[in-house]
Amino acid sequence: MAAASLIPLSVCAQYYSDYDWHDGPTIEPNGPPEIIFPVQGGTNLSDDFGDPRSGGRTHEGNDLMAPKMTPILAARGGRVTFAPMSEPSYGFTLSIAGDNGYEYDYLHINNDTPGSDDGNGGPQYAYAPGITEGVLVTQGQHIAWVGDSGNAEDVGSHLHFEIRLPDGTAINPYPYLDTALSMGTYDVASARTANPTIDLDKSLTAASPTDLHCTPGSLIRIPVITSVYYCGSDGRRYVFPNARVYATWYADFSEVLTISPEEMAAIRIGGNVTYRPGVRLVKVQTDDKVYAVDRGGTLRWVSSPALAARYYGANWAQNVEDIPDVFFINYQIGDPISS
């Protein structure tokens, strides 16, 4: 999923209130509405867009069932255009003019005091702190809580999620939610077991025997110099940038072979070894976000402390290691983890 970039908002989108249609700024749609899943932790998903509703209406979104007070995340970054502080008849609602030109609507937001069904929770239990009309939000940011406000009281708590074009036309969010749900998950054990070797992690292609100057899969070094290299199946050597990266792949240095400088010079340099997937959480020294590592040095932002605790335990913060900025070039940013 492409990283979001904020663009000056110009054209006009619309959102509905009790009284009339209101103008909210957006830009022209640019590409498909690439999103992350807006309910933290994910949920069962079905395509109920277009289903009949009372009064001859049709359902213009997807209902994402979840317990009350489950965090709602910004499916896409953008500007909040509608966040009523007094609950409308249809319940607390958020509209966000996305940075890719689409409008994202979040309905049936919580209106209860936590632990009750009193309908008196007010905006402080509807929206996340700091969420008001006009503020910018980033993709994956906590913006609200799931509830049953409006006509959802007898249905059960859920998020009604819509995607609209600038003219107000609703489009089916299901295919984008389905993609986001599959991409937004992460399994620590699977990430680790699916990448047991550096060859697999880097998707190296085996070289012909005539191009091999070291034994594929071996660990090598030269006298005096402490740097350790991995001999890839492609016949190149890959250096471990530090002992922390090495420790995610090997328990000790007992298998490291010492070869001559001349032998080492005959082996072409392939690049740096990156953290093994599923072993450590990492952060870049000049970036506050915490990332899980996936195949090929792909960094996936863990979008909340709760998700970090789910995947790496209550002491997850002790499992975070810094990647120096100089080594960031070895990594790439992937899809956020939102469930």
UniProtKB/TrEMBL annotation:
It comes from Candidatus Uhrbacteria bacterium RIFOXYC2_FULL_47_19. This is Uncharacterized protein. InterPro entries: Cell_wall_metabolism_enzyme, Dup_hybrid_motif. SUPFAM superfamilies: Duplicated hybrid motif. GO terms for molecular function: metalloendopeptidase activity.
